[in-house]
Write the structure tokens for this entry.
Amino acid sequence: MGLNNELDGITVVSLEQAVAAPYCGLMLADAGARVIKVERPEGDFARGYDVGANGQSAIFAWLNRGKESICLNLKAEDDLALMRRMLATADVFVSNLAPGSVPRMGLTGEELRRVNPRLITCMISGYGDSGAAAKKKAYDFLIQAESGLCSVTGTPDSPARVGVSLTDLSTGLTAFSAILRALIQMGRTGVGFDLKISMFDVLADWMNMPLMAHRYMGGAPARSGLKHSFIAPYGAFGCGDGGQVLLSVQSNREFVALCCGVLERPDLPDDPRFAQNPDRYVNRVALDAIVTACFEQYDTPEVLAKLEATHIANAQLNSVADLSEHPFLRNTKAMIGGAEVEMAALPVQTDGDSATDVPGLGAQTAALRLEFEQET
């Protein structure tokens, strides 16, 4: 027995766009919750991110499978009233609109719990909901820069953004975990409450390693590409066939195994330059040259085989095309507008079949209007 529809019976109304809240909603839907995605009449702008799925967005398909879609113009009194009726019976309300948008519509937790005391609200913002932070617009890349992530990412010559939407995804994941905690507490108390998740707060927490280095270890690590800021040998090393193998040696025991089993240099662990990791890091240029000289004698598969045989952590420097064909990759599918889209599966596996259908824009509008027009 494993996880399977454990959120069955939970209704989530998600006033969502882009990536952060939709990713949270995706995981709630995968856990069995009913997720009603509320879109403006022109739709979530993420529907236009690409046209890879027969003219529709493959990225949107990844983030929105298993949901229902209703189009509402929340500036219109009738549609706002319908939104309130949906929230009167919902368990969770998720939102990630522009700063101030949700409160201006009167959709605060305090207001909504006058009718639905058990309602949990989760408002995702860029920087917070008070003072100057509440007024500042935010996107994934901008938070990466503002939080300092770009300053520790890239090469010594140039900062870089992380190549995936790390801010959005980490925030969606944080919101999901907070909602699960809130549901447990609400089950004990019978009373809902407000969750407020700031994208900046999420990434600042994830930045604690360089932050601690700045505050307590003499300075934040410099950008080092594929190298580590205090571990050696660590990084990408060229092989005889032009391939690259990533190596990460994090203990003296592993270093001895590398020297004896791969480098065929059993003398190195006794060399004062390489006796302990701090020594190896100080003398990393000389050590990297020794590793490279060895690896260049072999093709990439031979190097990998030697590392595996000696239980040394390693990886290939793969492209996205390599990932697409990776033997470890678990795939799942989604259907959007009659097109099948294949994607990496969610990391937490569930028993039974996961939902694959991606709603067309407003596909459930008529049915949901009928359902909630009948609500008292």
Observations:
- The longest helix spans residues 166-189.
- The chain has a mean pLDDT of 94.
